């Protein structure tokens, strides 16, 4: 069995695609690499922010649900999304930048042996920057240019996803016994005991962090995370993982063609939605790399409905 390679992407909810675009490109300096729609409901945008090339392991994605209410935080949730920066100095840069922009941000703190910085976007999306100084084992992405963010301070990919669950054993069973992660350490943080699971090369791009909590189940809304996707090499490996998930007794979606990658979805015993996604073929399938995200991209099976779909979407200016 090949190991899971790390985090592939994280998908969250937003109530306003234009405001979301402004925050993630203008404030965080990420690149919009794909402006498309939810393939299961093409009336809503699906936006992908990533590194320069839209590399696997760098994608933070958002479904637009205009009527989404606020999130009522709680357990049984993906409670925070990690983003990677190159150094401790970059953590200091982001603390000053986010403070100056009046973004809700905490103070730098050590977590999992690395300097981190927790903050929230304009909808309460919880994000934590992780310094790669002691966590760069899994290769990161390539920075995207931004006039106010030096390249050495830029966001370069996804860091650990944090899960908050009521039953540790139900999530641990999936991570250890199904997905072959390794439990590497635990530590006390203000939210409780943080348990760190790692796969493949490890480090910021290949960890899942879990906190056990007795609080009520989260009621998701704008600013909540829908699912976390984990990296597999190709469709052959994905089919092998499907067999493993089947053998473990977890109901799943079966193999789903997403055009830019191929996926398998299933939930653990706490209701956390995991996706396994292939590294390819990638976002350059229908757009040149230098023009990623500039136009509405549709997979072939939706292309014949382009006029209908575009009429229902409010334009987003992508520069």
UniProtKB/TrEMBL annotation:
InterPro entries registered for this protein in UniProt: Extradiol_RC_dioxygenase, Glyas_Bleomycin-R_OHBP_Dase, Glyas_Fos-R_dOase_dom, VOC_core
Domain VOC per the UniProt entry, residue ranges: 6-132, 157-279
Coiled-coil region list: none
Keyword Lipid metabolism: no
Alphabetized PROSITE patterns for the sequence: VOC
UniProt xrefs under PANTHER family: RING-CLEAVING DIOXYGENASE MHQA-RELATED (PTHR36110:SF4), RING-CLEAVING DIOXYGENASE MHQE-RELATED (PTHR36110)
Designated name of the protein: Ring-cleaving dioxygenase
Lineage of the organism: Bacteria, Bacillati, Bacillota, Bacilli, Bacillales
